[in-house]
Amino acid sequence: MGRPRTPIGTFGVIAIRARPNGNHVARARYRDWDGSNRLVQATGPSRAAAERKLKQKLAERSLYQPGFNGMSANSSFPELVTYWLEDMEIEDRLSRTTRNLYERDMRALVFPAFKDLTLREIGVARCDYFLKQLARRSYSRAKHARVVLRLALALAVRHEILPRNPMDHVSRLHRKKTIPDAFTIGEVQEIRAAIKAWESRRIVAGPRPDRQLGQIVEVMLGTSARIGEVLAIRLQDLHVDDPIPTVRIAGTIISRKGEPTHRQDHPKTDRSVRRVALPSFAMQAIRSRLLRSSDTEPGALLFTTRVGTPHTTNNIRRLLRDVMDAAGIENVTPHRFRRTVATVVNDAQGALLASELLGHTDPRITMQHYIQRSETVNPATAEHLERAFGTAG
Q1: What CATH fold (topology level) applies to the domain 185-199+209-369?
Q2: Most buried of 46, 130, 231, 325, CB within 10 angstroms?
């Protein structure tokens, strides 16, 4: 049997000798990351200084382990960012939209603060300070920055470029609690009236409104679907002649830089595909749209531009905002309709049904972010307490 090897990351006996110029050289054999033994040396003005420098050099050497791409702890942060973006492309687990968002957040939020640093210089304190300073300006930006910085540094750990992820030990971000805002029934009626007035106005020049905005709003109110999901409804997703008319929410509209706007074959997540029963007001809006549409192909979109292309979500948001601004109605967004639907269903049947309608896998998400809490406790409590503690007059 051969002589057993020392473990990786350990060194042998330190030998020190003096040089004619008065300096001292300390040497030791170090078993490197690849299993090879290499001679490591350091020079100092005295035996003790040379030995101290050598031990420090050996202690730091484990951080020089190159990753599979030749990177080390002394590589620059921009090198890691490039490596991370390439790795996401190779894995191809995330959607193109998510990858684009991650790259945007990395370059806009994180990169400017870390671009001049090596990976060795990025520690817990620096990451913690960066996130806290960013959170003072915007909790949302700090949250996005935390995600991409953690992912990039996690890749460095997985590929043995860094021994640990400093993001594992930063303090939690704290957000001021907000109450989800929903429209009242009266506000919904005001919005409907404003859209109807805009769509019915006399036009001196240009095409008349084709009433799609009002129909889109009615479908959002009748399904809780996101704006992109409503715009992605195809004719084959509609089952209007069934005993219980339904629509299948099974896609969303995607607009990426450098690509034409198109329909994605699943909603925000694969698990949020759902078939939703249609109330009569949503059915009326859909039938009105079908009467105006000349396309009968099953794969055709229910809502399209005048030239038959998909609407972008930004254009519908902008149009809704313009119409509401003209009517003097503030804070009307497509997502607020979604919160309104969640609140109404929760008040009637509870959070579990509201969560199912919205396509959430966890009712806590619905409760925390979508349902406007009512301050009024069920008055039945008064009857129960009266029976328990009331006394005859």
Answers
A1: hpI Integrase; Chain A (1.10.443)
A2: 231
